[in-house]
Amino acid sequence: GAGVSQSPSNKVTEKGKDVELRCDPISGHTALYWYRQSLGQGLEFLIYFQGNSAPDKSGLPSDRFSAERTGGSVSTLTIQRTQQEDSAVYLCASSYDRGQETQYFGPGTRLLVL
Amino acid sequence: GENVEQHPSTLSVQEGDSAVIKCTYSDSASNYFPWYKQELGKRPQLIIDIRSNVGEKKDQRIAVTLNKTAKHFSLHITETQPEDSAVYFCAARFGNEKLTFGTGTRLTIIP
Fold it and tell me: From A35, which residue of chain B is nearest by alpha-carbon distance?
């Protein structure tokens, strides 16, 4: 079946512009994560959605970052007033909990802020 | 919240030798411990996982061991091959709380 998809695959933007990154999780997956990965670095947790529970936003680095998940499916990560340090690969992952906890990652969106 | 430490950050081993990567976690309630492999330019993928009711799990050349008392778990790769070169991430989780990843280990297999 279809895996996790993300769009766009690449995004180049100018400093100060807003960007929206989209994640389509695997159908039926209740959990959805956003991570940021700078070149050669680890997985920086950003936000976690689990079913109808309030999201865990503890990883968002500043109030310029926000995310929503509509209808328990598609998620959008928004970065306002982008800065050069926001340049990274943004990875989305989803999982179907209740004993099947494997996280399936999307291909990522490579964001470059000039 | 959970905190996961991973060591070493880089590891080079001769092809055919074994590699061991270790992680410690802080939350004694954590009960799920997966390992992910990320090849260069690709997305992370699950390679093996273990739950807290099991002390060891094997899958061909890969094994994971868990010591709940000491709160640490390890990935063991035997008879390493060039395709094992990648970054490996451990993680820990309790229930439906978020999965917490370690900082990663860059494994290089020397031909």
Answer: B101
Are the beta carbons of B109 and B81 closer than 8 angstroms? yes
Q: How far is the CA of B44 from the CAs of A21, B34, B36, B70, B75, in angstroms?
A: 19, 12, 6, 27, 16
List pLDDT tens digits, range A40-76. 889 999 999 988 888 999 999 999 999 999 887 999 9
Output the pLDDT for position A72.
77
Query: What phi and psi, each to the nearest 5 degrees, are found at residue A101?
Result: -95, 5
Q: What percent of chain A has pLDDT over 70?
A: 96
CA-nearest of B106, B110, B111 to B7 is: B106
Q: Which residues of chain B are within 8 Å of residue A42 when distances are taken between CB atoms?
A: 89, 101-104
Distance CA(B38)–CA(A93), nearest Å, equals: 14
Q: Using omega within 30 degrees of 0 as the cis cutoff, is the peptide bond preceding A61 cis?
A: no
Both structure tokens of B43: 């997305």
